[in-house]
């Protein structure tokens, strides 16, 4: 009986030892390398079980396998026996299980993990985290886009786990988060050593349209294009290049955002301090056109000092013309200083003031009465515009076109482009107006003809035409018309047909109209005037003489 009990105990102990020593499938077990052959390591996992593992499973990405006979390793027991009676084990799966345990703890504690980038995939890279494979998005590689990731491949470095799912086997990591954290620490340290107004050396890292980023030794500052030089800088690349070392001044530090504003021109003398002394009002200087806009042109007087020539100050004659048609960029021009505003750092310049006013010149060289010749530039409803020397125009009003025709009729005789002559009648320099007269070319014939003729004068005219309503007569080339009622005092003699063309007739001037250029003439008025004069000379109220006797005596006296 005692023997049976002892046999039962022995069997129980034996079964217990079998259960303890037999590895469980699907778990990580320890084994020993007993041989290496044909690119595989033969591992004894206990209970007389051996398995084979490819040597590459013992190597890190890009490295040679480190394994030797006698080494103890952990492997994953997938199956206790295969068709060949060998255990099916995997070093890679053991490393993965171990890695996941380690990574989950690191993820929970927000700790960094070490890994190596070993392959490029769509949208990023794969990273070996010591047995577990993670995805590194392209946007999380660096703080700036990486053009060549070659130097980063196979390099062991820290990563931050952004997301992980063990069930799905997904891990997402970031290298950028590590760099930003390190960069922030370094940035805070560098910024702590900087003060506003301090001069430091930096290296130009990047150039944009609005400025350049300068590395101050771990922290970047923005050098705005307006702070590069006192003069106008169209693009930063005009004076800077990437990789260049420059001396800058710290203008402003934002402690919250860690943004640093830099300046280069602040280390140079401000040319505006001497502008008022160097460029007095009305002084003329040579400058270079740097920029042209719709409202004028900017002219650089010296580096850092620019003035604006407003479009209204560009030309005496070219009105409503774009400045680009008067000057061109980089052209050297003479300008006059019109106004200086030191507070606003503005200089108003004039281009036309460096040239004489063409209306003044014309007034001096063409006084009133001077005959000029020019091309008809424009025809309007109120007259002609004639091109004159100095690129200016003179106007011939309708009333100054002809002595004999109405202006509206006379203007029909002219066409644009005709070359005409005229006389200068008035020059108004202030209003920039020149009045011309075409009808004054031959002088005022009417004024010359009637110069000594006054109202009441008796003149001799020649009959040039007989009409029903009267007769047309001519005096010194000027024609006038005597109506039928003015042909005689007696109605019986108020007959036009009693006159013939070529007859000489004495008439009395009743009106001199300079506007209509007409003489009012009357034979009847002359006869009445002569009768009145004869009565006053040869008769009296108490003489008793008849009118016939008086006129007879007057006629005798006249003879």
From TrEMBL:
Q: Which CDD domains match?
A: S1_RPS1_repeat_ec1_hs1, S1_RPS1_repeat_ec2_hs2, S1_RPS1_repeat_ec3, S1_RPS1_repeat_ec6
Molecular function as annotated in GO: mRNA binding; structural constituent of ribosome
For this UniProt record, give its keywords in alphabetical order, as a comma-separated list: Repeat, Ribonucleoprotein, Ribosomal protein, RNA-binding
Which segments constitute the S1 motif domain?
A: 26-92, 110-176, 197-265, 282-352, 369-439, 456-524
Q: Name one Pfam family in it.
A: S1
Give start-end of the signal peptide: none
Any single GO CC term annotated in Swiss-Prot or TrEMBL for this entry = cytosolic small ribosomal subunit
The organism's superkingdom is given as: Bacteria
Biological process terms from the Gene Ontology for this record are:
translation
Function as written in the Swiss-Prot or TrEMBL entry: Binds mRNA; thus facilitating recognition of the initiation point. It is needed to translate mRNA with a short Shine-Dalgarno (SD) purine-rich sequence.
Give the family per the record: Belongs to the bacterial ribosomal protein bS1 family.
Return the protein name: 30S ribosomal protein S1
């Amino acid at each position: 009986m005692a023997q049976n009990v002892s046999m039962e105990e022995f069997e129980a102990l034996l079964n217990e030892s079998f259960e303890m020593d037999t590895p469980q499938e699907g778990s990580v077990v320890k084994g020993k390398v007993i041989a290496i052959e044909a690119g595989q390591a033969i591992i004894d996992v206990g209970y007389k079980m051996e398995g084979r593992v490819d040597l590459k499973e013992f190597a890190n990405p890009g490295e040679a396998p480190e394994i030797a006979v006698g080494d103890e390793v952990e492997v994953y027991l997938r199956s206790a026996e295969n068709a060949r009676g060998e255990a099916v084990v995997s070093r890679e799966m053991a490393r993965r299980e171990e890695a996941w345990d380690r990574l989950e703890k690191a993820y929970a504690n927000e700790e960094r993990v070490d890994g190596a980038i070993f392959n490029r995939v769509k949208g990023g890279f794969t990273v070996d985290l010591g047995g577990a494979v993670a995805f590194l998005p392209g946007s999380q590689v660096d703080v700036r886009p990486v053009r060549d990731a070659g130097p980063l491949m196979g390099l062991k470095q820290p990563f931050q786990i952004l997301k992980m799912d063990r069930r799905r086997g997904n891990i997402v990591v970031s290298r950028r988060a590590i760099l930003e954290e390190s960069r922030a620490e370094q940035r805070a340290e560098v910024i702590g050593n900087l003060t506003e107004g301090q001069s430091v050396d930096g290296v130009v890292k990047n150039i944009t349209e609005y400025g350049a980023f300068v590395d101050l030794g771990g922290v970047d500052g923005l050098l705005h294009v307006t702070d590069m030089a006192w003069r106008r800088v169209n693009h930063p690349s005009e004076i800077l290049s990437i990789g260049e070392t420059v001396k800058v001044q710290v203008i402003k530090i934002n402690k919250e955002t860690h943004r640093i504003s830099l300046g280069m021109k602040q280390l140079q003398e401000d040319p505006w301090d001497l502008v008022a002394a160097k460029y007095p009002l009305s002084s003329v200087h040579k400058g270079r056109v740097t920029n042209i806009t719709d409202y004028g042109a900017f002219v650089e007087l010296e580096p850092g000092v620019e003035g604006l020539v407003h479009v209204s100050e560009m030309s005496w004659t070219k009105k409503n013309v774009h400045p680009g048609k008067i000057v061109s960029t980089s052209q050297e021009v003479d300008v006059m200083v019109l106004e200086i505003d030191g507070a606003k750092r503005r200089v108003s310049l004039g281009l036309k003031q460096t040239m004489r006013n063409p209306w003044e010149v014309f007034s001096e060289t063409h006084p009133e009465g001077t005959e000029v010749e020019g091309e008809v530039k424009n025809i309007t409803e109120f007259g002609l515009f004639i091109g004159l020397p100095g690129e200016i125009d003179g106007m011939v009003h309708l009333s100054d076109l002809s002595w004999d025709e109405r202006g509206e009729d006379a203007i029909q005789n002219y066409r644009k482009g005709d070359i005409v002559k005229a006389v200068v009648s008035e020059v108004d320099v202030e209003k920039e107006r020149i009045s011309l007269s075409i009808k004054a070319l031959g002088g005022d014939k009417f004024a010359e003809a009637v110069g000594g003729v006054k109202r009441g004068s008796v003149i001799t005219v020649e009959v040039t035409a007989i009409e029903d309503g009267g007769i047309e007569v001519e005096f010194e080339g000027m024609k006038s018309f005597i109506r039928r009622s003015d042909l005689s005092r007696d109605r019986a003699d108020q007959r036009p047909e009693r006159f013939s063309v070529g007859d000489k007739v004495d008439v009395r001037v009743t009106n001199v109209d300079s506007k209509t250029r007409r003489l009012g003439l009357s034979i009847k008025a002359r006869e009445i005037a002569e009768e009145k004069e004869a009565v006053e000379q040869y008769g009296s109220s108490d003489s008793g003489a008849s009118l016939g006797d008086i006129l007879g005596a007057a006629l005798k006296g006249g003879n």
